[in-house]
Design a protein that fits this description.
It contains four helices and eight strands. A hairpin with a 2-residue loop joins strand 3 and strand 4. 23% of the residues lie in helices and 37% in strands. With 158 residues, it is an alpha+beta fold. Strands 1, 2, 3, 4, 5, 6, 7 and 8 form an eight-stranded antiparallel β-sheet that branches.
Length: 158
């Protein structure tokens, strides 16, 4: 981060948020912003319902939606929670979830969370999982002491 942000570069005095706390925010979130890239290189943002599921941000969309088409062509994406106070920004690649048992478990979890069950086998829809390769997190009220960059090994969800 730039020096003007007030974040110590040596880690001294930092109150680092635990990954367990971040995962709780991800589980509790109602809306997730999905950022993809249009064919002309411009960004596209859209809120969706989703889940923190098997270590990934999972959501379903129509294959014909703008985000569905964008992510099919360019799987690099960002997921951002709607809160600007408890900030979680995940960077990674999306992969289509295809395992029948995994899709059923996701539909069960989705129904429990939103009181609505998606059809995980509808051929017009696609279920994506963004496995983070990087995450940025912080508490807005204590930004300099809680700003944390996380890096992860990439893994595919299927």
């Amino acid at each position: 981060m730039p020096d003007g942000y007030g974040i110590a570069r040596d880690g001294s005095g930092a109150e680092i948020l635990s990954w367990e706390q971040i995962e709780q925010w991800l589980r509790d979130a109602r809306n997730y912003w999905i950022i993809s890239t249009n064919a002309d290189g411009t960004p596209h943002a859209m809120p969706v319902w989703g889940l923190w599921f098997d270590g990934a941000a999972a959501f379903a969309t129509s294959r014909e939606s703008r985000k569905g088409r964008n992510l099919a062509e360019r799987p690099d994406g960002i997921v951002h929670l709607e809160s600007g106070d408890n900030v979680v920004i995940l960077h990674g690649k999306v992969a289509e979830m295809t395992g029948r048992a995994q899709l059923e478990r996701m539909a069960d979890a989705y129904e429990k969370k939103y009181d609505m069950r998606p059809d995980p086998h509808d051929p017009g829809n696609i279920t994506y999982a963004l496995s983070p390769t990087k995450a940025l997190t912080w508490l807005e009220h204590d930004f300099p002491n809680t700003a944390t960059r996380w890096r992860f090994e990439s893994s595919s969800q299927s």
